[in-house]
Amino acid sequence: MKQTSNRGLVWRLVLFTAGSFAFGFALVPLYSVLCQVWNTGNRWYGKQTAEASVIERPVSDRVVTIELVANIPQAGAWEFKSQAPTMKVHPGKLYSTSFYARNLTDGAVVAQAVPSIAPQTIARYFRKTECFCFTPQNFAAGEGRDMPVRFIVDPDLPPDIDRITLAYSFFSAPQVAAVSR
Amino acid sequence: MNAVTATHAGDHHDHDHKPKGIGRWLFATNHKDIGTMYLVFSCIMFFIGGAMALAIRAELFQPGMQFFDPGFYNQLVTNHALVMIFGAVMPAFVGLANWMIPLQIGAPDMALPRMNNYSFWILPFAFTLLLGSLFTPSGGPAGGWTMYPPLSLQSGNSFPMMIFAVHLMGASSIMGAINVIVTILNMRAPGMSLLKLPLFCWTWLITAYLLIAVMPVLAGAVTMLLTDHYFGTSFFNPAGGGDPVMFQHIFWFFGHPEVYILILPAFGIVSEIIPTFSRKPMFGYDAMVYATASIAFLSFIVWAHHMFTVGMPLAGQMFFMMSTMLIAVPTGVKVFNWTTTMWKGSLSFEPPMLFALAFLFLFTIGGFSGLMLAIVPADYQYQDTYFVVAHFHYVLVPGAVFAIMAAVYYWLPKWTGTMYDMTLAKWHFWVSTVSVNVLFFPQHFLGLAGMPRRIPDYNVQFTDWNVVSSVGGFVFGFSQLLFVWVIIKAVRGGPPATAKVWDGDMTGLEWSVPSPAPYHSFETPPDMH
Fold this sequence. Notes:
heterodimer; A: alpha+beta; Ctag/Cox11 (Pfam 04442); 2 domains; B: about 525 residues
């Protein structure tokens, strides 16, 4: 059996180790791709953009309850609430609602809302044509305002689903401003 | 025979040329010295981690808050895990590898002695950093050894100290692993083909590859935590488009192979001991090698069973459930091979064999509870309860730790040249084995009844089994002082051991050198053709 020299073998093993380190970082984009393919994971919701066009096909004999949840992960910095806790909607019809946010600090802040939909598996049937979560929001000191969301529930929504939760977490995100989204 | 060996060993002492004073240890390049330092370090860490465990068991002795506030309790839990995994079990295996691999393959030393020195001396710095963080104003890391964000990012000054400690531990084990691979691949005695390699070396070779494959992934994950905290990146921060669940995936991609890093060398040790005390060759040597390799391969595709409940597609849950159960096949091969080795053997029950047998029974119990946890629908009940705690302590304490103790009792006469006190060692065995079951078995019941992990207080209905578990914990903890006493007694002197030490037909090269093994051994390699 032919042997590699110690030096050669050490270099190969060091390269192997460096490769493993790089692989750890390669898992980041890999995870995004897999989440998109399997339609899961918050990473994908965070990057969601507006639907280009939707066609209204209302199903008037079916009612789905939409629960609207407002979360503030960093206590004290924000007032954040939904206009109404729940809405009754017909699949295939375009609706609009809004969330109210107020900056409680005495400085200008950039905010980012991160949406989450439950149950996770039906997220692709919940389509947003307009959302304050698509872009970072600028708030002056003490400023408060209503921010709109327009959405349509796909009529192909599985028949056993009668309740969808749309939750937003509202973050102060100075680092987001630097990143163009 | 004894007298002959003793004179022979005495002759060798004159030619040893051991470096003198503290420099012998600070600048050590001798594999036996470095092995000894690793083992002593591991023993100290075992007692530090054990003291934390006893503090935890004291707090859980009765419901309500006794000694610590919940914050400090969480620091105890987190540091107990980090110290035991990275400070006690892993360095013990590296110490055994340093001592035994060159002796088993007929090499004069490890391939990279200088790096060997660095990889050991990094460890005291790493653990000073980690344990030092306990004395910072904000206390030590308290978010669990798994370091899940965002919780781990909220732990104040201890956070960067923990991250750098983990980096250092990782660097140390990567260097140790590279050393083991180069030693085994390049320095075997002429004629020792890979399929003549002792099983302890085989399991270590595979473990070393696991180490260089996954320790860098952990380094990457904790680096991402660090940049998220200090440099505004958003790997795990949802505000910037990141996902905390991704940390769990990356962490357990490291974490599951890590579990096998902690157990494969133990398999190797047991595969050395059982044939010796059965006076039969290992049954199915080739099968053992391939089973070890299969377990190592499977360890890379099962990680998400640690996080079934965070949300993943049904297909993913099915895949990870099935692949996890598949591990039972090569592990079963091993357990059956050990059992078959004993079949119709001429068994004797010296302390190493007793510990190896306890390993066989009790590790298998841990394996079975692992199979229960692998079942997705059942995992929704078991996850985050004491059932999980019972499971991994069964595989790690009467599994990995018992195997390390078996190895020490097996090779100690080779290291010290004296026979240790067998009666005391058997006392150590029986007290440990009974108490370890009193300690961990009731935790299965607590978990099934719904007692959550990592909480300092509990509902009164859980009191009785917690009392039992705590009593077992204190007996087990203090019985380990017997272990130290046996070792100290043997180091100080005792009846001289023969070169072969045990009455068996062992063919390992380590039994061909006198006891104690001379400072420099196999300067001319033995011919294994």
